[in-house]
Amino acid sequence: MITDRFTKVREGQGGTRAFTLIELLVIFALMAMMLSMMGPAFVKVRDKARELQCLNNVRNLAVAHILYAADHGDQLVPHAVWRPPHNGALVPAVNMTFWPDLLQPYVGDDRLFVCPCMHCDSGRGIGYGMNLQVSGAFLVQSETYAVHSMEIQRPAQTVLFADAAFVTRTTMTRPIHEWQEDATRPRGCWTLCTPSDLLWHFAPARLMPRHHGRANAAFVDGHAETLTPVQLGYGLPLGHP
Q1: Is the dihedral of CA 207, 228, 210, 235 positive or negative?
Q2: pLDDT tens by residue, 34-68
Q3: What does pTM read for this prediction?
Q4: Could you tell me the maximum CA-CA distance found in the chain, to the nearest angstrom?
Q5: 20 to 30 A from 114, CA-CA: which of 25, 58, 74, 214?
Q6: Which residues pair with 205 in a beta bridge?
Q7: What does each C-alpha distance from 192 to 48, 88, 204, 208 come to in angstroms?
Q8: In angstroms, how far is CA 127 from the centroid of its own chain?
Q9: How many C-beta neighbours within 10 Å does residue 178 have?
Q10: Cα 5 to the chain's mean position, in Å?
């Protein structure tokens, strides 16, 4: 049998050399190490993609709102009007139609109402709330009673829509970073209470900083940003321990 100093082949064996068990274990260990190192990077990229998708959602809601205002005499979409919703409404109610269903004709894709990072047992639901301070009231008799855009003194600094969720009753009085999203709410949340709202102590509808401690928000002027709750001006009422 002819051999050279570079190749040694035993009789009865092919020219390929199989890995030994130890070598395979070393390879698997290296692969596991690489995956463990790359795993957090993949999660970070995925979360950033979801954050950007959410930001795009609220930006599109702001554009839809501008179109709505143009068709309604420069009036902001009300939080809710006193009339029965249409069949298949995003927010089912007996005698009230809420802002998601008022904006729906201008949105075109119901998925824009869903934050990709929200936690909901049903797998769907509204992920954004409307600032009750902007809507003028929780419920108005008709759309003609809504607030006009010109009444907002600082539209670029006034939140219109933002990441929101119903939080659990056990966490609603805690600091913001301890709020836990109530995943049992099948329809999500479409209301955004502020500390000055009368509903603050009773309704657990809160700003939800889903994106690593930050929330996406659309403003009355139509732009959208990713900001912390403090930057957005949301927090517990003054005097809370």
Answers
A1: negative
A2: 767 666 666 677 778 888 999 999 999 999 999 99
A3: 0.75
A4: 99
A5: 74
A6: 166
A7: 24, 23, 9, 9
A8: 6
A9: 11
A10: 65
Q: What share of the chain is helix, strand, coil (3-state, %, to 5)?
A: 35, 15, 50
- Name the residue with tokens 């463990």: 36
Rounded distance, CA 82 to CA 105, Å? 19
Residues in the chain: 241
Spell 41-56 as b/e; 16+ CB within 10 A means b: eeeeeeeeebbebbbe
Quickly tell me which residue has 């010109």 as its tokens.
150
Q: Which residue is associated with the tokens 């790359």? A: 38
CA distances from 174 to 135, 139, 241 (A): 26, 28, 9
How many CB atoms sit inside 10 A of residue 233's CB?
A: 13
Model confidence over 200-241: pLDDT tens digits?
777 788 899 989 899 999 999 999 999 998 888 775 454 444
The β-bridge partners of 217 are 162, 225
- Phi and psi of 56, rounded to 5°? -65, -35
- The alpha carbon of 130 is separated from its chain's Cα centroid by a whole number of angstroms, namely 13
CB 103 within 8 A of CB 86: no
In what helix (H) or strand (E) does residue 54 lie, and over which residues does it extend?
A: helix 21-71
